[in-house]
Amino acid sequence: MSGKILVTGGTGFIGSHTVVELHHAGYTPVIVDNLSNSSIKILDQIEKIIGHKPEFHQLDLCDVKKTEDFLQQNQDISGIIHFAAYKAVGESVEQPLKYYRNNFYSLINLLNHYQDRRVNFVFSSSCTVYGQPDVLPVTEAAPVKKAESPYGNTKQVAEEILSETAASNNNYNIIALRYFNPVGAHASALIGELPIGIPQNLVPFITQSAIGKRGPITVFGDDYDTPDGSCIRDYIHVVDLAKAHVAALKRMEDGKSSANYEVFNVGTGKGTTVLEVIKAFESSTEVKLNYKIGERRAGDIEKVYGDVEKSAKELGWKAELGIEEMMKSAWEWEKYIEKNPF
């Protein structure tokens, strides 16, 4: 494969891993990022993995003129993978307008440029669109439920924007990937998740607690209707997730899409409880964790995991790495950044 692929938010957690996988697949990734939630040093880390520093542009995609100028100057871009978005659920509740402005303006500015020429577009969506599903595992045909947060709502409305845009103009080939819970880090331990402040997600809090940056881990509730009472999620290794983006691009390039707007679940198809994640970390790293059981947390869904048969059949993709590999790689990354702070 060849071609120049724009990766928005490409210095972030999922974006940086996808840049690496695009390179391995023969593409030329071009990164755009405003660095509001990532570090410029990630470019050096990517260089250590792939042998050269990828092309990078610091740009706020909410700026209409700068975005249009950039795209006009880079008309050889054949595909876009759009990660750039704010993603903290709690912050979105406190500052909804910040989330609506950033997450919609950036998307619309990108799409607007391609009304008159073709583009393959992969969108970073989320299983949050399902809410608490009525049936598990949840399929792509399940109803989209009212969002629990402004962040979740941006994903739902963005999917509507993409669907309606594709329906109005055949220049757009669009695939929305509905992620479950990305965790882990690259096998090199040179890139991984870099949360700013106190981590909002389980696995980086686990690794920071294990290394001494945080106090005990709180398991929010042990009285749910699950095997051990803790919440169930579908955790997916970030490298597997990155490879799904490459598969989505290839599907569109090869003309295999059944329509010019499609959605796919990207997960393992297996649910894992919070307590099972803790045990997997301990067994894969031989590090004992300090954790306690707390009250249920408002807004938490009891259990969600995806049906991934459509992704396997139509994308030709499936997750390969298990929960222990996720935990071990996350721990190796945490130890790396302890010695090499960003």
From TrEMBL:
It catalyses: UDP-alpha-D-glucose = UDP-alpha-D-galactose. GO terms for molecular function: UDP-glucose 4-epimerase activity. Signal peptide: none annotated. InterPro entries: NAD(P)-bd_dom (IPR016040), NAD(P)-bd_dom_sf (IPR036291), UDP_G4E (IPR005886). One of its GO terms (cellular component) is cytosol. Homodimer. This is UDP-glucose 4-epimerase. It comes from Pseudopedobacter saltans (strain ATCC 51119 / DSM 12145 / JCM 21818 / CCUG 39354 / LMG 10337 / NBRC 100064 / NCIMB 13643).
